[in-house]
Every structure is written in C-alpha cells, then in structure tokens.
C-alpha cells in the first residue's frame, strides 16, 4: 500500500508482521495517523541537516535540495551547529507549526530529533519525523525501512506512510531523561560506542568490526549488575545489557532480533560474564541473531532475551552506556527505562 500526501486514510493498519533480515525491518500492526482532506496542502517541512555527519558533503546537500524539489515538497533547510542542536531545532519546529521534521544525518541526529519532538509533545503524540540517512550508522533508518540512497529516501518521504512507533525513555541518576528509538546498550557495546566517537579512520561495517575487535582485546570488564524487570531481579556479573526498541546495533549485530517497534515492549538482552575466547565465539551468533540459542553452547550462564515495558539497571560500578549509538554516560550507577507505546509518528 503506497499512500501519498494528499490521500491519507484513517485507521489503516499495516497487517501481516513483516520481517526482512537484510533491511533489519520488523513491524507489527501499524496504525495510520490522522486523515487528510482531499486537496489539503501539507504544511512546510523543516529539514534539519547535520553538516558533521560522516557522509555529509556540500554535494549531498545540493542533491538533497534537488531531489526534494523534484518530489514537489515544500521545505526549508536548517543546519545544526553542535551536539544537541537538532533537539532544539526539532522542538522549535513544532512550536512554529511545522508538520514534518526531517533529520538528515546518522543515528545521533535522528535521536536528537526524536528528543525534540517528544519534548514538544508533552507526553502526547509526537512527530511527524522523516529521515534521510547520511551518517556512519543508520540503524533507526534501517529499522523503519528507509532506503539508504539519497534519491530513494527523498521519494519515500513524498510517497510513504505515517506509522506510529514506540519510543523508549531512560532516566539518569540526576533525573535527566533521554528518549531513544533504537537501543540503549550498557557495558561492552557502550564501550564500543564510546571508542567509536574518537575514531574517524573507518566507516560503516568496517568501523563496527574494528571497534568490536578492539573492545574484545582491551575490554574485559563484567561489573555486577542488578537488573529488575517483570517482577524479577537478576544480579550477576554482566558483559552487557541491551534495552532494545529496535533489533540491530552497529549495522551488523542483531542484539534484540525479535524486537518490534510498535508492540509497547522493550526487548531485553542480558549477556553474562564471558572470557575473550567465548566472546569471539559468540560474535557470529550476534550477527545472525541466534545468540540466545547458540549461547548455551558457549557460556556457562544463559543469555537472556525477554520482553518488558520497564527495566531498571543498577550497579556499584560505574556503568558505561550508549543511546542509539552515541555515548550516554560513563559513570552512572542506576538507569531506569520505560516505554511510550505508539507515541511517535514516523514517515517511512
């Protein structure tokens, strides 16, 4: 079903759970957003560009302008000037009556735009978010089925559907909150994300592979973590904990392979302490999303995959974590997670 701007239908569901491993897509039943009247003009679109995204160039910006114009979209371009600015720009766009905010960048730009839209919604329905993936990592764009080529992504914005997706929220020890669309990783993958922020030699899958190898070689920590969810508590040394709304991290690792973006639940991954050799043996399983099955042959304690609407992770040790691929914290002792079911409108 392909719905244009001028012919949105009310309460249309996207039936038949869809899983396409190559595009990391996993959807449940989506609901279409509000109905548009015949001939109604779409409000101006605000396009937020991150000029520091690894794949950004003035050539890409010029082509982007041309493709959006070809699609007949009424838009304006604004650029971020530093970390956190996309959040401010997205929030301001809502205040200005802008209907669609398009994030042009990678995971970080997309996450900041989500935060701006969610903050502006005051816990109501947020959006609408569009995505043009031009970053090093584009996990959320992949998760919602956005093409990774510029022209096709622009075409998707003009002719796609508005779908209602869940958004996760993490609360830090100081009370600060952050929203996320894909995953939060604590421990091993948090360390990888932290190292990746200072690495510019590689991109995409090559960088993910290198960062993973490096982390296996130098990171051998498994702090005792207390993980509370669904009325139970697990306390043991943990290599990593992942709270997943989406399925994939670092382009290739299906950390929460059964996650759905609209089921109102997190997929929780708990990986116990393992040796370096055991970790190396687990990596192929993470690429296939079979770690919970194959892990029992590699590690002594089971790898846990569970679904839950709330999670709390605490430790006496300092916790390193990422949020949608960007560093979240390096010294937290407690992180709380809750989910906002189908609270973000995404054009995809």
CATH architecture of the largest domain: Sandwich
Rg, nearest Å: 20 Å
Span of the ends, CA to CA: 12 Å
Q: How many separate structural domains?
A: 2
Number of helices: 9
Give the SSE order as H and E letters.
Answer: EEEEEHEHEHEHHEEEHHEEEHHEEE
Fraction of residues in helix: 25-40%
| Gross morphology | globular
Note the main sheet: 13 strands, mixed
CATH class of the largest domain, named Mainly Beta
What structural category arises from helix and sheet content? alpha+beta
By CATH, the topology of the largest domain is Tumour Suppressor Smad4
The amount of beta strand, in percent, is 25-35%
Organism: Candidatus Nealsonbacteria bacterium CG08_land_8_20_14_0_20_43_11
Keywords: ATP-binding, Kinase, Lipid biosynthesis, Lipid metabolism, Magnesium, Metal-binding, Nucleotide-binding, Phospholipid biosynthesis, Phospholipid metabolism, Transferase
GO molecular function, one term: ATP binding
Domain DAGKc: 40-174
